[in-house]
Design goal:
This protein is mostly beta strands. Helices cover 9% and strands 35% of the residues.
Length: 148
């Protein structure tokens, strides 16, 4: 396990991935401020999607019933990094979208937020405290500087 933090995914095009500490308040990525979408600190649980080599290639969100996320469905679905699967979605960190189901069943209930900026950009957070240092390093290889 690592010491904590969150994977922050800004749903710009292309997506922006950062690993940083975020609390339950506003989240800043560069100068852009994201506020809670009104759905609270958990929109559902999630699985880390792992390829055949064990590297994490994305995350799948399973919504809590009555989470309220339905009102964001169209905006989430319009992002090229997201694929919908039986009412839940998968966020892929790159063009690599193949994963192995039996290696991708974490069912983590860490902090998993949906936040929004004043210009309508969406942001997702995933708690990374249960990932191994190698898994976290693998995710960090996708990290970039932020949306424009």
């Amino acid at each position: 396990m690592n010491t904590g933090g969150s994977l922050v995914a800004v749903l710009s095009d292309p997506i922006c991935l950062l690993v940083k500490d975020v609390g339950d308040g506003d989240i800043y990525v560069g100068a852009r401020k994201f506020v809670d979408s009104g759905l609270g600190v958990s929109i559902g649980f999630y699985d880390w999607l792992r390829g055949s080599d064990g590297q994490i290639v994305g995350a799948r969100t399973w919504f809590l019933s009555n989470s309220g996320v339905e009102k964001f469905h169209a905006r989430l679905a319009s992002n090229s990094a997201i694929e919908w699967d039986e009412g839940n979605f998968m966020l892929f960190f790159s063009a690599k979208r193949k994963f192995v189901a039996h290696k991708s069943d974490d069912q983590e209930f860490g902090v998993h937020r949906l936040a929004i900026s004043s210009d309508g950009l969406l942001l997702l957070t995933y708690d990374v405290k249960l990932l191994s240092p190698d898994e976290l390093s693998g995710i960090k290889r996708f990290a970039n500087s932020g949306p424009s």
